[in-house]
Write a structure and sequence with these properties.
116 residues; disordered N terminus; four-stranded parallel beta sheet
């Protein structure tokens, strides 16, 4: 994306404006899903991240049905390989982001957490 195109995605004070891509990790439930709805309703292009294909598809369908623009991005962020692939895919399809929300929860799980 050229500097001119990048400026076109920004508001008058250099702030991202609706229409720019917003990547929300953990967007298939809770706070992430609510934020995805709010941003799509304000005209943002929402990149919906989740690790479950059917839940991701459901959110994308919901946002599109309401008139928003949304795309699914699957990855288990507990996997470095999948995380790297997510980054490569997003960068290839959207050369710049207007907003990144790191909402996904990645935990060690029950037995490992108890051992710590």
């Amino acid at each position: 994306m050229s500097p001119h195109e990048r400026r076109a995605e920004q508001g008058s004070e250099g702030q991202p404006r609706p229409g720019a891509p917003a990547l929300i990790t953990g967007a298939t439930s809770g706070l992430g899903r609510s934020l995805a709805r709010a941003l799509a309703g304000r005209g943002w292009t929402v990149l919906v991240h989740g690790r479950d294909e059917s839940r991701c598809a459901a959110v994308v369908k919901e946002l599109r049905t309401a008139g928003g623009t949304a795309y699914p991005y699957l990855a288990d962020l507990a996997s470095l390989r999948e995380t790297a692939e997510l980054g490569r895919r997003v960068a290839a399809e959207h050369p710049s982001l207007g907003l990144l929300v790191n909402n996904a929860g990645v935990g060690a799980g029950g037995t490992r957490a108890a051992a710590l």
